[in-house]
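Key result, reporting period 2: structure in, sequence out.
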């Protein structure tokens, strides 16, 4: 809500893991419908999705290519969604490898993690430039995702190393 977003859950998204696993065509149909719906401005993946590849026979069609090219949107997610990012690149759509709905927007604490919140704000505030800074802290993974964890902050550890440049220089533009 802080970003002005109104979540739209696609028809098959809440039918459970077994349904999604056994019906990749339904999952693909949700994605098609999201791109066709002019009210939907962005697709933010719920979570990675271990079997995303199973949707490809239903997506890698001339019809879907035309749908994406005629209705470009923000597409964002990570983990197994990496395969979707590659698919969209092949279809000519630039995407954002970044936060997903469940682990990031729906953080169990009372607020989104500050570093994630700052980083994601560039999609909604459209600054002319954006400097990627090292997070001052990192977080231990939760041991439980039960309802008892709602409102509890993650254990945080101070970051002492900052970025580590693996190749090239420490300054880049893009």
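The corresponding designed sequence is given below.
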């Amino acid at each position: 809500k802080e970003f002005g977003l109104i979540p739209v859950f696609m028809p098959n998204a809440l039918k459970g893991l077994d349904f999604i696993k056994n019906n990749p065509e339904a999952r693909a149909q949700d994605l098609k419908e999201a791109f066709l719906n002019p009210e939907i401005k962005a697709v933010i993946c719920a979570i990675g999705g271990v079997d995303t590849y199973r949707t490809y026979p239903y997506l890698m069609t001339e019809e879907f290519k035309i749908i994406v090219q005629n209705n470009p949107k923000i597409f964002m997610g990570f983990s197994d969604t990496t395969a979707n990012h590659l698919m969209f690149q092949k279809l000519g759509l630039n995407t954002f490898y970044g936060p997903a709905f469940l682990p990031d927007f729906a953080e169990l604490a009372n607020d989104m993690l500050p570093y994630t919140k700052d980083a994601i704000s560039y999609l909604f505030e459209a600054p002319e430039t954006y400097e990627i800074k090292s997070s001052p802290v990192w977080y231990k993974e939760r041991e439980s995702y039960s309802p008892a964890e709602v409102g509890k902050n993650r254990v945080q550890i101070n970051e002492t190393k900052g970025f580590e440049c693996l190749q090239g220089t420490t300054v880049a533009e893009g």
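The CA atoms of residues 122 and 128 lie 9 Å apart. The longest strand covers residues 74-77. This case is discussed further under Risks and Mitigation.
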